[in-house]
Amino acid sequence: MAFASFLVLLLIDRDQAVLERTATAETERLVLDDGSIVWLTRGSRLKYQRKSDTEIRHAELEGEGFFEVAKDPDRPFMVACGSMTVKVVGTSFNLKTGSEHIELEVLTGRVNLSSPADKTGVDVSPREKVIYSKDGIVEKLTLKESEIQTIIESTDYDMRFANTTMDKVFTKIEKKFDVKVVVENTTVNKCRMTADFTDQSLEKTMSMIADLLDIEYRIVKNEVTVSGKGCD
Fold first, then answer.
1. pTM (predicted TM-score)
2. What does the pLDDT look like over 130-174, one tens digit per residue?
3. How do residues 17-33 score in pLDDT, each as one tens digit?
4. 3-state DSSP call for residue 202?
5. Element (H, E) at 133
6. Of 62, 76, 141, 157, which has the fewest Cβ atoms less than 10 A away?
7. What would the 3-class secondary structure string for 62-79 be?
8. Alpha carbon distance 204, 210 (integer Å)
9. What does each C-alpha distance from 206 to 32, 43, 86 come to in angstroms?
């Protein structure tokens, strides 16, 4: 991903300390308390704190990042980008700004980009890209497959599996969500999975797996425990 600068603000629980993180690796993953994931590019800085579960989610970011926002219709996710505002509920998008324009690339979901001068703004649909210049000119384009691959190439966003053994699925889950998966019956690891968990939270991912394999799971802090009959 190319680097640029923009601002995003993310609110999480006011009783908790404010967290500030500056990415030192080429791509650095942060799993937020609401289940959203942000992949920051090197030098980008994210600052966030938790607020009430009833409030709108916001963030503050300097740099460039790819956002996979956890679905929560009751708490929109607001992104302040200079004088522009991005509003989403549950979606994945990449955002870049420069001195002359803002570039928003949407992979899934629907995103609204607005400003004080244009409160209605423009809606951006999946696989669309909007370039919003500082003089108010909006250019909407189709997002190319090559552009999508460039956005996600350094992330764990893609969670598609085709006849994959569960040990490999669990390894990918551990890496993406920064958790430890403990499998009580190791024969579960021999089961195979064909499914797409892209854009799903950890809870939703494990719920889908449980339904498909008839297993049980529990999530306690950063540990996921899996139990069930497994496969021979």
1. 0.83
2. 998 877 778 899 999 999 999 999 999 999 999 999 999 999 999
3. 567 889 999 999 988 88
4. helix
5. strand 128-133
6. 141
7. ECCEEEECCCCCCCCEEE
8. 10
9. 18, 33, 30
